[in-house]
Design a protein that fits this description.
The complex is a heterodimer of chains A (454) and B (808). Chain A is globular and about 75 Å long. In chain A, strand 23 and strand 24 form a beta hairpin. Chain A contains 6 helices and 29 strands. The longest helix of chain A has 26 residues. Chain A has 2 domains: 35 residues, no CATH class; 418 residues, YVTN repeat-like/Quinoprotein amine dehydrogenase (Methylamine Dehydrogenase, Chain H, 7 Propeller), CATH 2.130.10. By secondary structure, chain B is mainly β. Classes of the chains: A mainly beta (454), B mainly beta (808). Chains A and B meet through helix 3, strand 4, strand 8, helix 4 and strand 10 of A and helix 5, strand 30 and helix 7 of B.
Chain lengths: 454, 808
């Protein structure tokens, strides 16, 4: 209530100042109005994705705009990223990451002419993002549409991965007779590159074969997508998440409706990127590669990983210090929230073991934009509990599937909450107390949506 | 009113015949003051309630029979003289006149000129928004067919590099699948890329018709936005024509056309062959043109394209009979062509050029042509063109080594040569794909002119494409179970042409009926796994479209042209049957995209003031495509995160293109010619959120201009020197959709304004059988782009020699 009052007063004041500023700047000799915020404790870079063909497809451009954390928390602040932001140079939705202090944005351009190019920007507030350091490409190692992640090693290293597959067939020495041919397996070769984010140079590159067990291979399973390189606590292993696909072994056509296997992760030595090993969870099933946000994080000596497409709803899986799945750790989001078919679309733990989870579930509505409704929950990795954040306004059109970033500062997480094509707000979640504060106003554009903060 | 006049003079004519006595014949001969014979001049005789018209014959003679005695005015109009009026008195039964006209280079005719319309102009005045591009002059120069099209108003060619590179055609803003290209009315997809606008030399082409938005019945295909029809030479005169052109980037182009007709029997032999080659090793700079050091650091460089060669060879041979009683043309023949294209990069120019990816295509086609005017009865014309054969495409990409724009192998961070993980130049893995297609197409046109006012035309075109793919880099098992889709189209059209008010009003009404059959073949093992059998699914669809074109001559030199069509694009085989490899499943209910197209235009001219002559034409156009075919809202997510399938559907989504184009032609004394045209349009879409947004990545404003100056008797008597200067302006456009009012970072997405200038000259030797031409293109070496990041050739020089024999 207090906020609302302040809100009104300040808006009036701002409008007045705005009008005056507009008048003066028109009349003065090019003296610019002070539109840039003051130096910030922690920049919060708001990210929006403009609509292409379909509402919320995010294909019309990725825009970023930085405000101070104070402004982000202030409901009087108005952020119009679609009119005032910086268009990240990427043909498709840019894949962004931020330094831990929020002062640097890392962009690896996705697809198109600059696809696979790594650029670094210093955040200077507003739409000012200054390119720094030299450009470097990882396209030659992992392609122009790379799956890349900044490792949590003090912003030192980025890593990107690529998988190429080949179906292997025994033709029984009769190359022209198809009837006696047998499918053997599908070779999946993963390319892993590590990138020095400080000096903009390539650290290492390896190609490794990632076989499944004989039974799985004979049935036609293989790694069709890999993503989310994550460093373990000891810093000697790199985990790579993946998705399995399956062919029909009789005809090699893509299969669908098959049995979903236990969730898998590829474990490599770090920094040599050698000795690949595939580990399998018995707790969770389905993919571990997430989508556009980081899907696995190190906390308290272990790596916690969300899975997707699990027939029993998403789980947070734990990979222990021994680099094996800890199957004694069972954190089912279905169970924690009392829902069915939960699907974690993006999540982020804090250093205290609390986590913000963006999810969908069987009861999600389909909004007017034709997209599935998303929700936010606050979870506790230790107690394996989660609570829906009811203070965040729900809307059928709150679409979170493409959500990319969660800025965290002093255990507070900054969320962008706006239904597709509608205005919304930043919400700041104090992960310790669970308090939710409404922050800056977000001005939306038709069919567009927000994909988080950095 | 016109009818009344005709009627009256007709009555008088009859009267004048009926009066036997007191009539005389007037015989005359007309020549110029330089003693040249005046042929084809218009002569009229006017008296009291008497009017007769005729034209002078090959000796300049004319005759008016049975002219009643009296006083008359005779008027003579010729192309090369001022009109002459003389008074005569008919007072004897035979009167002869000798008339001399002062020779004058300037054409000083008004109505009479209409009677000497070229075929180009006839087509252009039917009411369609059509441009007829004559290739005669260009064929003697170093000009590609595509370049010629690009200078045409409303046409934009977007080429991905130099000679032989992929070309996209855009007519009034619509491109891709919306535009269909034909060779003599047969869809060019039947010929494949080795016999295309990239490879056919202009000298094989008689002219090119560009129909914008509204397509006449004789070019029936499902084209939403227009059609380009290449009309090959149909002449029956013995001739031989050879040319060779050489220039920058080791570009050599040769071609030879010949026709021999035995005058007694009409037996005709026709042949054309061509060969084109270019290294396309032109310089590129900017953007991602950088060298990469071992540590990955990037240095911008000016690089030469190093893997971009193109070669195409082909020919056509026909034998048969021409100008015989039973056929104007009856020819059977064979077309063979092949090409080889190195592929330097994908759709974009990235940091990593390709080295080792290439395609080869070939086509072997039998063809048949039969044309006869006035078959069996007067006014009944038949026209049949058909072809049948095979064409194939091979795409080869098996080299894993990575290259930089310096043309060197890229060195890894650890000092080793870098090989791509995916084992090929283009991401996605090695491929050695062969696609074979059996093609057949036959076009039949029947026309019956009931009288000079009414004409009915019935056209049918069948085209069938039978496809078979295999990839040698994949196992036989994988290749065997690939699904294929074959496409068969039957398109019928009925047109009615009306010609009224002494050719002032022309109307063409047409309806088109489209039938498409898609056959999907899914190979499966039989129940005991001993044999592979094909499961076949078929989808039959039929749709109707209709339209009209009309022209009205408000004044002899002001003409209103208007046309409209409800055009459709049938769903492609993938849209109907999906593509298993791309997670797309069949949707047998997908409907065609529909476009409502309108054109209204004016044509002013030719106006002549002393030695100045000019024509102006302008068209306003509107295209409105509805029911766009696309993927549903969640398709990207489904494909990204699961193995579920998505399908193509129609959406309440539209595209509109509206704009204006105009063209001015000016000439002075027949030796200076200036052409100027511009096209400006808006291209918007109504997206699925119901908003109207600009469609990005489309040039919206283009200006072309050309200047030609002829000098007669240059260096030698009876020789001719032509000088040419052309400019091409394309306004800046953005690769991404328009953003907010105050955003930053847009520069990275802009394709800058371009202004390209070419210069050329050609010299015709006195005997007119030898022509030499020189062209300098992009003389200021500007960075030219049709597509973002893909730079086109800079400054280039070409020399061409032509040899023409018209008599043996």
């Amino acid at each position: 209530m207090k906020h609302t009052f302040l809100n009104f007063k300040t808006i009036t004041l701002f409008t007045a100042i705005g009008l005056m500023t507009a008048c003066t700047s028109d009349d003065s000799d090019g003296i610019e109005a002070p539109t840039q915020p003051e130096q910030s404790e922690r920049w919060i870079t708001v990210t929006g994705a403009r609509m292409g063909t379909n509402p919320a497809d995010g294909n019309g451009g990725t825009l970023i705009y930085a405000i101070s954390n104070e402004d982000a928390k202030n409901p009087e602040t108005v952020v119009d990223v679609f009119n005032n932001g910086f268009v990240a140079p990427s043909n498709r939705t840019a894949r962004l990451q931020a330094s831990e202090d929020g002062n640097t944005i890392f962009n690896i351009s996705y697809a198109g002419d600059t696809g696979g190019n790594y650029t670094k920007y210093t955040v200077e507030g507003g739409k000012d993002f200054m390119p720094t350091g030299s450009e470097i490409s990882i396209a030659e190692y992992v392609g122009t549409a790379p799956r890349w992640i900044k490792l949590f090693d003090g912003d030192q290293t980025g890593s990107a991965v690529y998988v190429s597959t080949e179906h292997q067939v025994d033709d029984n020495d009769t190359p022209d007779d198809v009837t006696d041919d047998t499918y053997l397996r599908t070779e999946a070769k993963v390319g892993v590159v590590t990138l020095d984010l400080v000096n903009s140079s390539i650290k290492n590159f390896k190609e490794v074969s990632v076989p499944l067990n004989a039974e799985e291979e004979a049935a036609g399973y293989y790694f069709s997508r890999v993503d989310m390189p994550t460093l373990n606590a000891a810093g000697d292993k790199l985990y790579i998440s993946g998705r399995l696909s399956k062919v029909d072994p009789t005809t090699l056509e893509s299969d669908s409706g098959y049995e979903i296997l236990g969730s898998k992760t590829i474990v490599l030595d770090y920094p040599t990127l050698a000795n690949p090993k595939v580990i399998t969870s018995t707790v969770g099933h389905g993919n571990t590669n997430g989508y556009r946000s980081i899907n696995s994080f190190e906390y308290n000596g272990s790596v916690y990983q969300a899975n997707q497409g699990d027939p029993n709803g998403s789980h947070i899986l734990k990979i222990g210090a021994n680099n094996e799945y800890d199957d004694s750790y069972v954190f089912s989001l279905d169970a924690a929230l009392g829902l069915e078919d939960t699907y974690i679309v993006a999540w982020r733990p804090t250093s205290h073991g609390k986590a913000i989870i963006a999810y969908e579930h069987a009861g999600s509505a389909t909004g007017s934009a034709g997209k599935t409704q998303g929700f936010f929950a606050l979870a506790d990795l230790n107690s394996k509990t989660a609570t829906k954040l009811d203070a965040i306004p729900s809307s059928d059109d709150l679409y979170l599937y493409q959500y990319q970033g969660f800025a965290i500062y002093e255990n507070e997480v900054y969320l962008t909450v706006a239904p597709v094509g509608q205005d919304g707000n930043i919400y700041v979640v104090d992960t310790e107390t669970g308090d939710v504060t409404q922050g800056a106003q977000l001005i939306n554009a038709t069919g567009s949506h927000f994909i988080g903060t950095f | 009113m016109f009818a009344t006049k005709t009627y009256t003079s007709f009555l008088l004519l009859i009267l004048s015949f009926s009066v036997f006595s007191q009539n005389g014949d007037i015989y005359g001969k007309v020549k110029f003051d330089n003693n040249d014979i005046v042929l084809g001049a218009y002569v009229s005789i006017k008296g009291d309630r008497f009017l007769k018209e005729t034209a002078t014959g090959i000796d300049g003679e004319f005759l008016f029979k049975s002219v009643p005695y009296g006083n008359y005015t005779i008027e003579i109009h010729s192309l090369n003289a001022k009109q002459k009026i003389i008074q005569v008195l008919v007072d004897s039964n035979k009167k002869s006149l000798k008339i001399t006209l002062p020779y004058n280079n300037l054409q000083d005719l008004d109505q009479v000129l209409v009677k000497t319309k070229t075929e180009k102009r006839k087509t252009e005045e039917k009411g369609f928004a059509v441009n007829v591009i004559e290739t005669k002059e260009a064929s003697l120069r170093n000009i590609q067919t595509n370049e010629l099209l690009n200078t045409t108003v409303g046409v934009k060619i977007r080429q991905n590099g130099g000679l032989g590179s992929h070309v996209q055609y855009s007519l009034n803003g619509l491109s891709g699948n919306s535009i269909r290209i034909f060779i003599d009315g047969i869809p060019i997809s039947m010929y494949g890329s080795s016999f295309s606008l990239n490879s056919i030399p202009p000298s094989m082409i008689k002219n090119i018709e560009v129909y914008k938005g509204v397509i006449p019945g004789h070019l029936a295909d499902d084209a939403l936005g227009g059609a380009i029809n290449i009309v090959l030479h149909k002449g029956t005169k013995t001739n031989l024509n050879a040319s060779v052109s050489y220039g920058s980037f080791n570009t050599i182009q040769t071609n030879l056309n010949g026709l021999y007709r035995f005058d007694d029997s009409g037996f005709t032999v026709k042949a054309s062959i061509f060969n084109n080659y270019s290294d396309n090793d032109y310089k590129v700079w900017g953007g991602q043109i950088k060298d990469i050091a071992q540590d990955g650091s990037q240095t911008p460089i000016t690089a030469r394209r190093f893997y971009d060669a193109y070669r195409s060879t082909g020919g056509m041979a026909q034998i048969g009979f021409t100008d015989v009683t039973w056929a104007d043309q009856f020819l059977v023949g064979f077309t063979a062509s092949e090409d080889y294209k190195e592929i330097q990069h994908g759709a974009f120019v990235t940091l990593h050029p390709y080295y080792g990816r290439f395609s080869e295509t070939e086509a072997k086609l039998a063809n048949l042509t039969y044309q006869k005017k006035d078959l069996f009865i007067e006014g009944f014309d038949v026209n049949v063109t058909g072809l049948y054969g095979k064409r194939s495409t091979v795409v080869n990409d098996t080299v894993a080594a990575a290259y930089t724009w310096a043309g060197e192998k890229q060195i890894r961070f650890d000092g080793e040569a870098l090989n791509y993980t995916w084992g090929s130049q283009q991401e996605g893995g090695p491929t050695l794909t062969t696609t074979n297609r059996n093609v057949a197409s036959i076009r039949t046109g029947l026309a019956y002119a009931i009288n000079e006012h009414h004409k009915i035309l019935l056209n049918h075109i069948y085209s069938g494409l039978d496809r078979d793919d295999s990839d040698e880099m994949q196992s036989l098992l994988e290749n065997t179970f690939k699904q294929t889709s074959d496409l068969y189209k039957n398109i019928y059209s009925l047109s009615y042409e009306l010609n009224l008010l002494e050719d002032k009003l022309k109307l063409n009404l047409f309806g088109k009926h489209y039938r498409q059959k898609v056959k999907n073949t899914k190979p499966v093992f039989n129940s005991d796994g001993t044999e592979v059998i094909d499961e076949i699914f078929e989808s039959d669809k039929d749709y109707n479209g209709y339209g009209f074109a009309a022209s009205y001559g408000i004044l002899p030199n002001i003409m209103l042209l208007t046309s409209a069509e409800k055009a459709i694009r049938l769903p492609s085989e993938t849209e109907v049957f999906g593509d298993v490899a791309g997670n797309v499943e069949a949707n047998l209910n997908v409907k065609p995209e529909i476009s409502k197209n309108y054109n209204i235009g004016f044509r002013f001219g030719k106006f002549k003031i002393n030695k100045h002559a000019f024509t102006l034409s302008t068209t306003l156009f509107s295209r409105n495509i509805e029911d766009l075919i696309g993927f549903g809202a969640n398709a990207d997510r489904i494909v990204e995160s699961s193995d579920e399938l998505v399908q193509y559907e129609n959406f309440d989504e539209g595209t509109t293109s509206q704009g204006i184009e105009a063209e001015i032609n000016y000439s002075y004394n027949n030796n200076l010619g200036i052409n100027f045209n511009f096209s400006r349009l808006t291209l918007e879409s109504r997206n699925r959120a119901g908003n109207i947004v600009d469609i990005p990545n489309t040039p919206l404003f283009t200006i072309n201009s050309g200047l030609r100056y002829s000098i007669k008797n240059f260096l030698q008597e009876k020789s001719r020197l032509n000088l040419f200067y052309n400019t091409y302006f394309t306004d800046e456009f953005s690769y991404i959709m328009s953003q907010g009012t105050n955003v930053g970072g847009l520069d990275a997405f802009l394709v800058p304004t371009q202004f390209i200038q070419d210069f050329g000259l050609s010299y015709t030797f006195p005997k007119e059988n030898f022509v030499i031409s020189f062209d300098a293109k992009n003389i200021f070496n500007e960075a030219a782009y049709d597509n973002r990041s893909v730079q086109k050739p800079g400054r280039a020089f070409y020399l061409k020699l032509n040899y023409i024999i018209n008599k043996f």
